[in-house]
Amino acid sequence: MRKQIFLIIALTVTTISCGPSQQKVEPTNPEATEVWQPKPAKVAINGQTGIPSDAVILFNGTNLNAWKSKNDGSAPKWTINKDGSMTVKDKTGDIVTKEDFGSVQLHLEWRSDPNNTQTNQNRSNSGVFFQGLYEVQILNNNDNDTYVNGMVGSIYKQNPPLVMAAKPTGEWNSYDIIFHAPEFDNSGDRVKAGILTVFLNGVLIQDHFELLGSTEYIGYPKNKAHGDGPIILQDHGDMSGVGFRNIWLRKL
Amino acid sequence: MRKQIFLIIALTVTTISCGPSQQKVEPTNPEATEVWQPKPAKVAINGQTGIPSDAVILFNGTNLNAWKSKNDGSAPKWTINKDGSMTVKDKTGDIVTKEDFGSVQLHLEWRSDPNNTQTNQNRSNSGVFFQGLYEVQILNNNDNDTYVNGMVGSIYKQNPPLVMAAKPTGEWNSYDIIFHAPEFDNSGDRVKAGILTVFLNGVLIQDHFELLGSTEYIGYPKNKAHGDGPIILQDHGDMSGVGFRNIWLRKL
Amino acid sequence: MRKQIFLIIALTVTTISCGPSQQKVEPTNPEATEVWQPKPAKVAINGQTGIPSDAVILFNGTNLNAWKSKNDGSAPKWTINKDGSMTVKDKTGDIVTKEDFGSVQLHLEWRSDPNNTQTNQNRSNSGVFFQGLYEVQILNNNDNDTYVNGMVGSIYKQNPPLVMAAKPTGEWNSYDIIFHAPEFDNSGDRVKAGILTVFLNGVLIQDHFELLGSTEYIGYPKNKAHGDGPIILQDHGDMSGVGFRNIWLRKL
Amino acid sequence: MRKQIFLIIALTVTTISCGPSQQKVEPTNPEATEVWQPKPAKVAINGQTGIPSDAVILFNGTNLNAWKSKNDGSAPKWTINKDGSMTVKDKTGDIVTKEDFGSVQLHLEWRSDPNNTQTNQNRSNSGVFFQGLYEVQILNNNDNDTYVNGMVGSIYKQNPPLVMAAKPTGEWNSYDIIFHAPEFDNSGDRVKAGILTVFLNGVLIQDHFELLGSTEYIGYPKNKAHGDGPIILQDHGDMSGVGFRNIWLRKL
């Protein structure tokens, strides 16, 4: 019901203000609809790592300099491994980027821990938060049932993934995520919902989902006004053993 | 201007009908916000090709059985190469899928022809059309200037790409595209714009772009009602030499 | 001691019969040392799978038609998975290629089973045999000790690997192997040792190792004359859970 | 003729000195043929770049610090590109590693220049030299004929490749090479030939080739005694335009 109303209104507005009006004389030469300026910036793709030249690199295997501990702002205590990955160090807390971000495209790879054979939400649970508030869930759901709005690829407690596209336990998975920050007006009211589009291993699992508000473990999503915020990687505190590698984002 | 109006209206509607109303008593236990059904379908990723198990494979190097010539419906005359790619056969016309599609996620890889040193729109020009009407441009813009709404990654004659993220001449590029079909009402009016989100080589270059209408070489986009339609790969007719490989889609 | 003798003799022979003799007048123009015929055959690399065009494909995810059960020649009972891999089906026995091979270059990918937490030789044990007789070992040696001439990458019971280059449990590993068949004279004596060069995940782990003879669990290697033989993948019989994918070879 | 003599002698020596003699009592328990020490070193594979943890990185896209100009020892003038590759800067001369090496495993990726449409030895000619003396040829032989012992993958002027396995013009090719340095005695005589095994794009193209001596453009290979030497990448001096990326080696 809501959707229909929404669309009709939108259409009206679009028709009035945006489409080619019937008063315009339609051009008859192809040059008339060419636009030559401005030129889009060039982005080179690193042939070895696949990282675009305009990316902010958050982790490339060397160090955790882009991060700090959420608890006390100290250097993260997570483990850097010899294969260029890092692993959640249990009970040391979440890690957050030193820099705050708004809308971004984020790439991140993760793997669950083959030694973690716990069940439900305790089998390799982690997650990536945008602006410190909006979580895309990481969980090992291979032979492990949980609530679908808390499974791998869900917007936690808001929306299940379209499909379950994670790889078998122990293999590396890739997230490619488009995040648009919510917008608030001067009085603190949200005037535009945040949006998440998520690919897991190249498969679309969240398709322009409008965030209901912040991720809440208990209760409903909240929409308190805020500005830019950090990317957070979660230490779920239960020997998750989740590994990460190749994390970068591009500001949108 | 349009956008602001749009958003305010949308917000109003959302607030009324969608958000947790203030009358609801907020739950105090985590289980209250868990959803356990229905379970998302499982999708396996082929470890050798990266193709998801629920994909419709349009070209995997073996044959062009999913395609026909646009001109006369005959078997495509394009060339299949020994490396599992295919190449536009000049002057044999576009090729179109036998099957019609609505909204899809599409993966496609392409390369420009190092031997094609023509300029502007004649340097390795091709394109992929959704529903036979909406084109994402393919062009070699390495050291080759053209109008930005006709360059590689543009929605042809509608929107330039956010950035130029193509690889050097001769290297393979990948498109990952989310296409949502436009919707029309019974009287033939468009009630929802088609939408395109495009990644080129993993870089977001079209971000939820609302299609203005059909791709037109001369004149304005049109919005004549239509149903599902084929994927089309373009033979631009100028010795483009464009190659393709690894084409699949998932219905959304 | 042996090596020195061997090399000096070999050198002598080489000098006599092969090198440019001192009687030859050294050419003074570059064309004199050009060779134009015969032309090497062309091999195309499949861009989607990496498989060379002259390869014999043993498993590409679809079926096990190239294989039979070693026990009784029936169709293999191993499991084909949705991600294009296959898994050893415990207690159904080894599988062997229907075709026999001599010297080959072989590519094969394998993974150990995260659920297999047994120790020593029982943690994801399998292996690939050349000519049905010479085994390159597959084993999960992550946090699992065993005898070094029986660990992953060893020529079983003959030679340990140069380094331990396997990936963490559950990740896919690749073998690229050059195998030269031993040669026997008419009286059945071995006149040339078989040779194995092995890369594990791109790392050289067996460097032109001269096989001592057949792989034996008990006792010494044997050198009974034989001709071509099958590739064998081992069912070690202890719930190994080893997975395979992307298996092909080129005849040398 | 030579080969037969060689093999029989080798066999004799092997039988006398190496095989399990008949005097030995063959063991009847499996433990008797287990070897537990020494343990091979562990090598981790970087998940983002594929580089082994024990590699010497010669070029990873950032700088040319591992190299110097062959001409005068100055910093190399070759071009570093935004995609993490580098390109031969014409007429600036070869570049050589600052460090000298003996036997190594080398990985290197290269691409020919689509803009270079010269013929024969002038179409994207470069090469990689081991110990500064032994060249594996780089050349664009797509639709470009030359002498086979000077084509891509040849040991220049010594041995043609087994097959032509290069990719189309402009695509990246990978070399994986095992080089064993020749050995010389105190009087300067070569007592063991250098050896090259080469994979091009995963295809074996040089199979344990015994080097005849140094690479010579005019005249025969030479065998003057020498010690370790640098890796050299060639500037062939004719606008080759050859690109390189991802170069590393492991000492053997």
Q: Would you give an account of this structure?
A:
Four copies of one chain form a homotetramer. The longest helix of chain A is centred in the first third of the chain and has 16 residues, at 2-17. Chain A starts with a helix and ends with a strand. Chain A contains one helix and 17 strands. Chain A has one domain (34-251): Exo-inulinase, domain 1 (Jelly Rolls). In chain A, the strands form three sheets. In chain A, strands 2, 4, 5, 7, 11, 14, 15 and 17 form an eight-stranded antiparallel β-sheet that branches. In chain A, strands 3-6-16-8-9 form a five-stranded antiparallel β-sheet, with no helix packed on it. The first copy, chain A, is mainly beta and 252 residues long. Chain A has one helix at 2-17; strands at residues 41-42, 56-59, 67-69, 79-80, 86-87, 95-97, 104-111, 126-130, 134-138, 163-164, 173-180, 183-184, 190-192, 195-200, 203-210, 232-233, 243-251. Chains in contact: A-B, A-C, A-D, B-C, B-D, C-D. The interface between A and B is large, with 79 and 80 residues. β10 of chain C pairs parallel with β1 (41-42) of chain D.
